């Protein structure tokens, strides 16, 4: 008997400020005006996507003591944008990244419970930690937590927030449309938590929301991050979007679930994926090369190289050879608030490997950065991309993808109009929303219906 086809989950990531967007394209729009968010969200909903995802930036990045060029547009507040989008969409899930290192469980739980009410059960929380003391300078606690402490705090943060969400139970309240919500039990909303990181008690003031709790996402790729996702998350963002790497990640994370008494289907794996779409595969390949050239200007290439070299390389020619000087491995890094700093933990080895690559391929600095850092996940005609996405999902390399277009806000339009119908024809993607909440879209149970929670 053949294996039944898996249903594909699709989401859209509003790119915000990053090196994916082709800023020079005349079709590129604002990343902060509400009209851009509205167009993007309505396109995703028209295509019957599961959710829209917003990343978070808590401080403008710097390089060499100056604000990094891609950050000059600013970063609007996640909750404000999602609450506004709840009013202009009806079905689309609304996922926001909110940091567990610098916030408090009560305020975050209150905000997500409110968003879940306002949206009719469409909220989701991407729980992240912060490795960055530079970002922490914006906050009262400031500073930095070691990796094991970050995940310890994050696990307790989420467990505490769940206690707040669960403090209002269905049998403890009586809803009356005319006069509001009455308590059957004076203890409804009461909570007490005493732990390593949080010692709080009181009354939670937002009644049980439509989903009970927001859907929880997690994005860590370390061993601690994978365990955190397996123990506590409903979905995990992954950077492993190729078939082989995706299958390895998928197998590794899914096998961890049984340790926490969870089923295989209680955690979805959704890699981020960029794409370039054209009428034919050949046209798409040519367009992809053009997009990569626009994504990596000469100045951008030099800044990227500075992540590894930890030196000012502005006097180098981006169309020339790589520096012959070795990276500075000192503790004080030229780049502040950049995740790429963590990606190159052995800069001397990385520099040697890059020099070898550049010599073997006759690459300039810019050529190297283009060919090592900005490859699109899916490139081709609508039929090719639809087939590739379906093949990845059916082969258990993922449960779907979070799509990141290279133009905002219209970059999702072509995918919605040309690729989604092909997936629908194959019977692997919905033609209509069948439920009202994000948990419905993702096939996740309500916390009150099946106790799939893990004891903290």
UniProtKB/TrEMBL annotation:
Domain Luciferase-like: 23-393
Keyword list, A-Z: Flavoprotein, FMN, Monooxygenase, Oxidoreductase
Domain of life: Bacteria
Record-level Gene Ontology MF annotations: monooxygenase activity; oxidoreductase activity, acting on paired donors, with incorporation or reduction of molecular oxygen
List of residues binding FMN: 97, 151, 222
Stated family: Belongs to the NtaA/SnaA/DszA monooxygenase family.
Annotated NCBIfam families: FMN_nitrolo (TIGR03860)
Protein name according to UniProt: Nitrilotriacetate monooxygenase component A
Organism for this UniProt entry: Streptomyces lucensis JCM 4490
């Amino acid at each position: 008997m053949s294996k039944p086809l898996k249903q594909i989950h699709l989401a859209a990531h509003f790119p915000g400020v990053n090196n994916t967007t082709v800023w020079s394209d005349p079709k590129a729009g604002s990343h902060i005006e509400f009209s851009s968010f509205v167009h993007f969200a309505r396109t995703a909903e028209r295509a019957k996507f599961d959710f829209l995802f917003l990343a978070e930036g808590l401080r403008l990045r710097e390089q060499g003591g100056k604000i990094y060029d891609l950050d000059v547009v600013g970063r609007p507040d996640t909750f404000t944008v999602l609450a506004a989008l709840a009013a202009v969409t009806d079905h689309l899930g609304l996922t926001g990244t909110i940091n567990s290192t610098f916030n408090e469980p009560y305020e975050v739980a209150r905000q997500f419970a409110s968003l879940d009410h306002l949206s009719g059960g469409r909220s989701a929380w991407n729980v992240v930690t912060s490795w960055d003391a530079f970002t922490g300078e914006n906050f009262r606690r400031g500073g930095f937590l070691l990796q094991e402490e970050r995940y310890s705090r994050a696990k307790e943060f989420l467990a505490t927030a769940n206690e707040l969400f669960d403090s209002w139970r269905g049998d403890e309240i009586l809803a009356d449309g005319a006069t509001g919500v009455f308590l059957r039990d004076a203890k409804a909303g009461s909570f007490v938590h005493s732990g390593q990181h949080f010692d709080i008690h009181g009354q939670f003031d937002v009644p049980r929301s439509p989903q009970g709790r927001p859907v929880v996402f997690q994005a860590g790729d370390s061993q601690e991050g994978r365990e955190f996702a397996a123990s506590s998350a409903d979905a995990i963002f992954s950077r492993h979007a190729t078939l082989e790497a995706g299958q390895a990640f998928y197998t590794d994370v899914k096998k961890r679930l049984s340790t926490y008494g969870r089923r295989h289907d209680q955690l979805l794996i959704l890699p981020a994926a960029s794409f370039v779409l054209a009428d034919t595969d050949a046209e798409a390949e040519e367009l992809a090369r053009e997009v990569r050239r626009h994504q990596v200007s000469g100045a951008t290439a030099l800044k990227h190289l500075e992540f590894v070299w930890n030196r000012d390389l502005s006097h180098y020619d981006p169309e020339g050879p790589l520096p012959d000087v070795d990276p500075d491995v000192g503790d004080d890094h030229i780049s502040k608030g950049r995740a790429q700093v963590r990606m190159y933990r052995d800069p001397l080895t990385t520099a040697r490997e890059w020099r070898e690559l550049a010599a073997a391929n006759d690459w300039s600095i810019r050529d190297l950065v283009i060919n090592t850092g900005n490859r699109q996940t899916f490139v081709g005609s609508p039929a090719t991309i639809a087939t590739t996405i379906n093949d990845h999902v059916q082969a258990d390399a993922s449960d779907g993808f979070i799509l990141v277009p290279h133009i905002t806000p219209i970059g999702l339009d072509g995918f919605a109009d040309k690729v989604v119908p092909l997936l629908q024809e194959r019977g692997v993607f919905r033609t209509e929303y069948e439920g009202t909440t994000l948990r419905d879209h993702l096939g996740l149970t309500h916390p009150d219906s099946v106790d799939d929670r893990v004891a903290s």
